[in-house]
Design a protein that fits this description.
The protein folds into two domains: 140 residues; 99 residues. Strands 2-1-3-5-4 form a five-stranded mixed β-sheet, covered by helices on one side. A hairpin with a 2-residue loop joins strand 4 and strand 5. With 245 residues, the protein is of the alpha/beta class. The protein is built from nine helices and five strands; from the N terminus they run αααααααβαβαβββ. Helix 3 packs antiparallel against helix 6.
Length: 245
């Protein structure tokens, strides 16, 4: 799946271009960059603590979490790095930070250790502040389009209906239908209208979500539909086609 959508890992000069692009585009801009900076500081502290820590558990926790982080780094070489592939990388970074922060805050009192604790608490409070701001901003700008679309489809569809499209599973939570994603040359892409006889097809207006699985087979979704409805979800225009039966 990863190779199909994000490009296979090959050892070439292009890898450094992909890494540089992904770092600057996904990790080192906006509020996300501060998460990375705090991670770097705590990771450095983490290596220092390997010598100073008296805890038997800390080296195991730190090395294990750091190993997970290093294994996740291969995603920086992807040609296309969607959010769903970034999640586990951020979680691994968060785990490293949690392990190190817990060890620092658990240290006995001391002048040098007080500096470590102060820096750690400042970093954690800074990240908490960013998260609070993000949640507040998302709450203010939330549109509830996915919820409303789910309600709309649940009222129109019947239990045994079939809905096709990459967005179908996300928009049919409240329905008792069978939702099948479609990706060109990969999944459910061979003449899907005849094969599945769907009641509804959900696709982005430019069909990028399926890599033009419909247009690539000469299927004009508008022509084979009784009607269609367009909704805007984030930066994507999604069209719901009611296929003529």
């Amino acid at each position: 799946m990863m190779a199909h959508q994000s490009g296979e890992l090959t050892l070439s000069n292009k890898i450094f271009e992909y890494i540089r692009f992904n770092l600057h585009y996904h990790f080192l801009k906006g509020l996300a960059q501060w998460f990375v900076y705090v991670f770097i500081v705590l990771a450095v502290f983490g290596f220092i603590l390997l010598k100073d820590s008296r805890s038997k558990c800390y080296p195991v926790w730190f090395i294990s979490s750091m190993t997970w982080f290093l294994l996740e780094l291969h995603k920086l070489t992807m040609v296309y790095l969607p959010t769903r592939y970034q999640v586990s990388l951020f979680v691994s970074m968060g785990l490293v930070m949690s392990v190190v922060a817990n060890e620092i805050l658990s240290m006995p009192a001391g002048r040098r250790k007080s500096v470590f604790k102060t820096v750690t608490l400042a970093g954690l409070l800074f990240l908490i502040s960013i998260n609070i701001y993000n949640y507040y901003d998302m709450h203010l700008n939330r549109t509830y389009v996915i919820r409303d679309t789910n309600e709309y489809l649940s009222k129109q569809l019947k239990k045994n209906d079939i809905v096709l499209g990459a967005w179908a599973p996300s928009l049919t939570w409240d329905s008792k239908v069978k939702a099948l994603p479609v990706w060109n040359n990969f999944l459910n892409y061979k003449d899907p209208i005849s094969a599945f006889k769907p009641k509804v097809v959900i696709a982005e207006t430019d069909e990028q979500d399926s890599e033009q699985a419909w247009k690539g087979q000469g299927i004009n979704l508008m022509e084979i539909s009784d009607s269609a409805r367009t909704v805007r979800i984030g930066q994507w225009d999604i069209k719901i086609y009611w296929i003529r039966q």
